[in-house]
Design goal:
Two copies of one chain form a homodimer.
Chain A lengths: L3 E5 L9 H12 L3 E2 L16 H17 L2 E5 L5 H13 L3 E6 L7 H4 L5 E5 L5 H10 L1
Parallel strand pairs in A: 1-2, 1-3, 3-4, 4-5
């Protein structure tokens, strides 16, 4: 209970799944803490940027990765940042749980072929919530 | 001369830039070796997959990353695999050179904000080749 969760989802790679990220984050927050709540902010645009700002994001996100108890990622949308975070979390030895909609995407072989990750393909978004509940109760 | 280059580009994230990957790979091969020549294979589909196959890809690609002298990545298209490879190459201490078309994409803050990487935004594909030449001659 009250685990610190790093939630990973696409920002600049595309915001198609932002509403689903928001629902996953709200679900996790019922029992635990989400360090990266802004990933589900529907006003967050794929276009926000700025060099100094990028350095601040990098410093903050890697600090949150170190602080987290586990990582939950929604990987249906391709994203350079999420891919980077997956390898970074693996390096830190954090448990990583990856969800993707197999009707919409083939997961990258660099994630699907890496036995370190716990991977959950789904076909209906509703399948995801009981899995998250189980993960948080582990 | 005859450096071993790990070239990184999107496969399952989308093959929009595959023809440009092919041109970059052909250019590098004039003087040096590209370990990941298949990235520029125009018959390679974003749909190829299979669980055992994924494990083989993962093992092969991480072996090539370890074997490489440097990494050159084209990051205009978002890609989980390329993002993973960037963090993996950083962990190994390999020099990483990232190109992206700033008219088409905003680079992820997890790459743009990480001072480890050498980043080259471009507006015209032709700008890339003299930069690659310079990198290979370093």
């Amino acid at each position: 209970m009250n685990k610190k969760v790093y939630f990973a989802g696409s920002i600049r790679g595309g915001r198609n799944d932002a509403e689903f990220y928001r629902r996953m984050i709200e679900f996790i927050k019922k029992t635990d803490t989400v360090l990266t709540e802004h990933i589900g902010d529907l006003s967050l645009s794929s276009l926000e940027h700025g060099e100094d700002h990028d350095v601040q994001i990098y410093i903050q996100d890697t600090a949150w990765l170190r602080e987290s108890d586990l990582v939950i990622a929604e990987c249906t949308s391709p994203s350079l940042g999420v891919g980077y975070e997956m390898a970074y979390a693996e390096k830190l030895g954090k448990p990583v749980y990856i969800f993707y909609n197999r009707k919409k995407a083939n997961l990258s072989a660099m994630l699907a072929g890496d036995s370190y990750f716990h991977i959950f393909p789904y076909e209906d978004e509703e399948e995801v919530f009981p899995e998250i509940k189980r993960i948080l109760e582990e």
